[in-house]
Amino acid sequence: MLILLLLSLWLGEWYPISNFPMYSGFTYSSDFVYITDSQDRPIPLQIEFGFRTAFLKKAYNSRLKQLSNQKNSNQNINRDLQESLKQLLANNNINKNIINKTIKELSEKIYQEEIHVKAGEQLLQYIVNERNTNVTNYTNYKKLKLWNVIVSIKNNQTVQKQNLIAEINLP
Question: What pTM was computed for the model?
Fold first, then answer.
């Protein structure tokens, strides 16, 4: 025992001899994504399409990241919002700084919603196009829906929020 103690002191912080706890802290929320049919019944992804469920979240997050780096549509939304709000508020004496701040916040929210929908639609289309044809006959489905579930802890209670991200119709 003494030899092990001296050895660990001499080696220092090297894996697997380390005092750094891998899971010393947890976030207060996590999320997952899943696919349902037109009647919101979960679809067994591996059985029906030949994809593992771990792929689903990774591919969705990857598409979100790609789309987030494209700012063109955010600028278009911002410009459209500015014009609309300026026309609505032209006759009122509202501070232009407040208007500009509101426009910026609204356009960012709309843009974030837009990229989530677009990423979801792209992922669903990818799953249909690249499915393992030996595994599935997806004609049983008229529609696919991608859902995001956020599970969090608030006031020592577990809270679950479910959001429909995207849906596509199948031929």
Answer: 0.67
